[in-house]
């Protein structure tokens, strides 16, 4: 079996998060911390500019990783997608005062995934690699738009304003980009 | 339950990046609670966000990791672990009688029985939901079975999420979990399906434009 070191490292991280989730493994958590703290701290600093605040937000991210580790589901996404989603949400919460409501998987009204997640587990191993390749293949106008959305935390209508594009153009670029990415990952609708 | 009308990619992207403000976010999050397909699309977007961050990594800041680790370790003891996601079987045991999913239920203050309906006239009722963020108006609507919502257009965006019963808008049928996105270009007249009142969550960012002069006249009083 051929496997590059990058995806092996990713599997390793998923396993570390699982160990934190199941048995509060502090050594596993320290390895996650060592791997991600510098990146997350820098990610915070890109937007908030204040080193002290970036440090606090990084620590908050890591404590959230510890707290929510049992909720991480490797069949639904990669460790870095999960960690940076937590980081991005905390960064936004910091400058927006209102609440950021989210669905709750433990809610009795929550409709769970119909198929067992285990079916996905093996093939999702290199999903991030495939997604990365598919994103490289996107036209630059679509890639640039995704970068603006994820790096500047702006809505699609703000992106239209910034780029001086009609809203319809921005919408169709977003739809085209994600239909390609979904196709690249196979059966994801 | 199969969702027929899904959240659009552009709205879901705003959700994924966190750019969506509170009012819209309640509607999209509640739709996602009912829609596994939408959550799979969301997780792909989150993965794409992760890929972009790793492709364009900011200069890692490694300076004070040891100090940070000491201060984090102190906080781990006091912060509670959150439980793992429940499996489908566990949920089935608990029954599916809850009509309002989270996060909506917390905003309402309970399930349907705690809704304090206020009459809108013609048998329709609403309950406005108060938010800190005032850029949108959020309300539950109850449209009597077989009756139309007064025909209206929009100055901005409107999201309607069906929670109970169903409505027709032209040819399209919207039932529990379905999300309708409307904007300035749409003049429409949703009609509740016969047999059951239709309960929806409606989010708008500008007052609706009613065709009827009478409704326009009393609109400020109703606050819709």
List its traits:
heterodimer; A: 189 residues; Arc Repressor Mutant, subunit A; 2 domains; 69% helix; 0% strand; disordered N terminus; B: Jelly Rolls; three-stranded antiparallel sheet; 7 helices; elongated; Putative RNA polymerase ECF-type sigma factor (chain A); DNA binding (chain A); sigma factor (chain A)
Describe this structure in words.
The complex is a heterodimer of chains A (189) and B (224). Chain A is mainly α and 189 residues long. Chain A has 2 domains: 113 residues, RNA polymerase sigma factor, region 2, helix turn helix motif (Rna Polymerase Sigma Factor, Chain: A), CATH 1.10.1740; 53 residues, Winged helix-like DNA-binding domain superfamily/Winged helix DNA-binding domain (Arc Repressor Mutant, subunit A), CATH 1.10.10. Chain A has 9 helices and no strands. In chain A, helix 1 packs across helix 2, helix 2 crosses helix 4 and helix 7 packs across helix 9. Chain A is globular and about 50 Å long. Chain A starts with a helix and ends in a 5-residue tail after the last helix. Chain B has one domain: Jelly Rolls (Sandwich). In chain B, strand 1 and strand 2 form a beta hairpin. Chain B is of the alpha+beta class and 224 residues long. About 4% of the residues of chain B have low confidence.
- The low-confidence parts of chain B are 87-95
What's the CATH first level of chain B?
Mainly Beta
- Which percent range describes the beta-strand content of chain B? 15-25%
Separation of the first and last Cα atoms of chain B: 31 Å
Pfam family, one (chain A): Sigma70_r2
GO molecular function (chain A): DNA binding; sigma factor activity
InterPro entries (chain A): RNA_pol_sigma-70-like, RNA_pol_sigma-70_dom, RNA_pol_sigma70_r2, RNA_pol_sigma70_r4, RNA_pol_sigma_r2, RNA_pol_sigma_r3/r4-like, WH-like_DNA-bd_sf
Protein name (chain A): Putative RNA polymerase ECF-type sigma factor
């Amino acid at each position: 079996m051929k496997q590059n070191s990058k995806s092996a490292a990713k599997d390793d991280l998923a396993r570390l998060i699982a160990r934190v989730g199941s048995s509060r493994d502090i050594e596993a958590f320290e390895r996650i911390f060592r791997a991600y703290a510098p990146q997350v701290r820098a990610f915070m600093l890109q937007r908030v500019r204040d080193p002290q605040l970036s440090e606090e937000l990084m620590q908050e991210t890591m404590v959230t990783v510890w707290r929510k580790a049992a909720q991480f589901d490797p069949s639904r996404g990669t460790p870095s997608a999960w960690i940076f989603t937590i980081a991005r949400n905390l960064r936004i919460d910091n400058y927006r005062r209102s609440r950021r409501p989210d669905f709750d998987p433990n809610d009795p009204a929550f409709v769970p995934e119909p198929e067992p997640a285990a079916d996905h587990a093996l093939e999702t191993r290199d999903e991030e690699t495939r997604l990365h390749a598919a994103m490289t293949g996107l036209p630059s106008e679509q890639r640039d738009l995704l970068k603006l959305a994820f790096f500047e935390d702006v809505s699609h209508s703000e992106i239209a304003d910034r780029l001086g594009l009609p809203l319809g153009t921005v919408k169709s670029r977003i739809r085209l980009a994600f239909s390609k990415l979904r196709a690249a990952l196979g059966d994801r609708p | 339950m199969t969702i027929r009308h899904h959240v659009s990619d552009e709205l879901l992207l705003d959700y994924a990046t966190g750019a969506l403000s509170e009012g819209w976010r309640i509607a999209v999050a509640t739709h996602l609670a009912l829609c596994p397909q939408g959550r799979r699309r969301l997780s792909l977007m989150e993965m794409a966000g992760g890929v972009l961050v790793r492709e364009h990594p900011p200069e890692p800041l490694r300076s004070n990791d040891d100090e940070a680790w000491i201060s984090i370790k102190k906080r781990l003891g006091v912060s509670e672990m959150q439980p793992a996601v429940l499996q489908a079987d566990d949920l089935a045991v608990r029954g599916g009688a809850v009509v309002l999913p989270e996060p909506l239920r917390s905003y309402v203050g309970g399930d349907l029985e705690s809704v304090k309906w206020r009459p809108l006239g013609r048998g329709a009722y609403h309950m406005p939901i108060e938010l800190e963020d005032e850029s949108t108006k959020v309300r539950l609507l109850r449209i009597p079975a077989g009756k139309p919502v007064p025909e209206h257009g929009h100055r901005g965006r409107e999201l309607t999420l069906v929670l109970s019963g169903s409505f027709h808008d032209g040819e399209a049928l919207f039932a529990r979990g379905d999300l309708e996105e409307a904007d300035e270009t749409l003049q429409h007249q949703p009609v509740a399906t016969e047999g059951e009142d239709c309960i929806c969550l409606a989010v708008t960012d500008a007052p609706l434009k009613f065709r009827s002069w009478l409704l326009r006249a009393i609109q400020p009083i109703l606050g819709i």
